[in-house]
Write a structure and sequence with these properties.
With about 290 residues, the protein is of the alpha/beta class. It contains nine helices and ten strands. The radius of gyration is 19 Å and the shape is globular. Bound molecules: adenosine-5'-diphosphate (ADP) and magnesium ion.
Length: about 290
């Protein structure tokens, strides 16, 4: 199998943090990991086991001490900071425990942010697509609210809509339910389930919460920087959510993305997005 069949591939990745010249922590030790398109991979482990270090390396927020990192078949290990920043913006969506929304922007403007930064979208296109993404996460009535006017659960939904803004290859989630109450947490998990199973979004989720593992298609255990075993889990059903409406909102967002790409010179993804739209329209039409 070539590298292109994997969204993420880590080969012998190690990460050593130096506390002082002679004192260090081996946060990751010889990690080999391949993630296929369409998977939801859960990284389970206690605090300090290396989950965040692993996600940061997969998301190119940090570099390994040893080993190679391939994303979408491209070796990104030695990319310059500038190249990495661009690759990261287009390829990776991020969701953190603490939401990381921009406080002086509304929910809608937070979701628009990556689209504006990409240079692919003009303001009106970014706004139109952001509205569909807020509809997808069921936050349309809160579009003009600022983060501090929203509950934790709502802020995390805005962050998820933002993570989806540029149709990333995969979304990284570091303890996404860590700061949420149980009801908000189960709403987020239901949405993750729909995004993956109906829409096909690839996600990599670090958690120490066994409930979160129920949305995964594969669970990896991490201890002391080593990945030990993988297992398949029984997945929860998609119940109580209107999957069709959510997929429809997502497709409308993709159509705007298609317009944006066609009118820009960065039109390389047009074919892939057209195919995705027709595949999803088949689901919503029957
Ligand atoms: P987890 O996310 O599972 O709690 P981390 O990846 O944050 O684990 O940390 C793994 C290990 O690496 C821990 O021992 C932690 O103290 C250490 N570590 C993480 N980041 C740094 C850093 N920037 N400098 C030094 N040590 C670090
Ligand atoms: Mg962590």
């Amino acid at each position: 199998m070539s590298n292109d069949d994997f969204v993420v591939r880590l080969v012998n990745v190690s990460k050593r943090y130096y506390i002082s010249e002679s004192v260090y922590v081996d946060a990751l030790i010889n990690v080999n990991l391949s993630i296929h398109r369409g998977e939801v991979v859960i990284i389970m482990g206690p605090s300090g086991s290396g989950k965040s270090t692993l996600l940061n390396i997969i998301g190119m927020l940090d570099r390994p001490t040893n080993g190679r990192v391939y994303l979408d078949g491209v070796d990104v290990t030695d990319m310059s900071e500038g190249e990495l920043a661009k690759f990261r913006l287009f390829k990776v969506g991020f969701l953190f425990q603490q939401y990381n929304l921009i406080q002086n922007l509304t929910a809608l403007e937070n979701v628009m942010m990556p689209m504006i930064m990409s240079g692919l979208y003009d303001r009106s296109m970014a706004e139109a697509k952001a509205r569909y993404l807020l509809e997808l996460v069921r936050l349309t009535p809160y579009a003009t609210y600022f983060p501090n006017q929203l509950s934790g659960g709502q802020q995390q939904m805005v962050a998820l809509a933002r993570a989806l803004a540029l149709n990333p290859s995969f979304i990284i989630m570091d303890e996404p339910t860590g700061a949420l109450d149980p009801v908000s947490a189960s709403r987020l998990l239901a949405l993750i389930n729909v995004l993956n199973r109906a829409i096909g979004v690839t996600m990599i989720i670090a958690t120490h919460n066994p409930d979160v593992a129920q949305v995964g298609s594969r669970v990896l255990n991490i201890r002391g920087g080593r990945i030990y075993e993988s297992g398949v889990v029984e997945r929860i059903n998609i119940g109580g959510v209107n999957v069709k409406d959510m997929v429809k909102a997502y497709v409308e967002g993709l159509k705007i993305d298609l317009l944006a790409r066609k009118s820009s010179r960065l039109a390389d993804d047009v074919h892939r997005i057209e195919q995705e739209i027709s595949r999803l329209e088949e689901i919503t039409n029957d």
